[in-house]
Amino acid sequence: MHIAGSGPDCTLTELVLVVAKIVGHEGEILWDDSKPDGTLRKLLDIENLKTLGWSYRYSLEEGLLDAYR
Predict the structure, then answer these.
(1) What is the rounded CA–CA span in Å between residue 57 and residue 53?
(2) pTM of the model
(3) Is 28 exposed, middle or buried, given 0-12, 13-18 or 19+ CB atoms closer than 10 A?
(4) What span, in angstroms and rounded, lies between the C-alpha atoms of 36 and 54?
(5) Residue of 61, 60, 68 whose CA lies nearest to 6
């Protein structure tokens, strides 16, 4: 979940595991394997932002941890 489409993406499962780690969840996580693992990829072209010197500063985990705090 890097804002503005920085390149790396993650599955819904990966996102849930990161959030569980951040909030200290130690219980069981139940999965419904009959459902898809996230949505179809939606990529944004950020080449114009890169030419202006923009790049993301925080990883998904860093951003979520900061928001949680």
Answers:
(1) 12
(2) 0.66
(3) exposed
(4) 33
(5) 60
Question: Which residue from 21, 19, 3, 13 is spatially nearest to 59, judged by alpha carbons?
Answer: 3
Per-position DSSP letters for 34-50, written without gaps between them: TS-SS--------HHHH
pLDDT of res. 50:
81
* pLDDT tens string 35-50: 877 667 666 777 788 8
d(CA 18, CA 25): 10
pLDDT at 38: 67
Q: Identify the CA nearest to 19 among candidates 6, 29, 9.
A: 29
- Give the separation between CA 48 and CA 26, rounded to whole angstroms: 42
What pLDDT score was predicted for residue 2? 44
The token pair at 33 is 């394997």
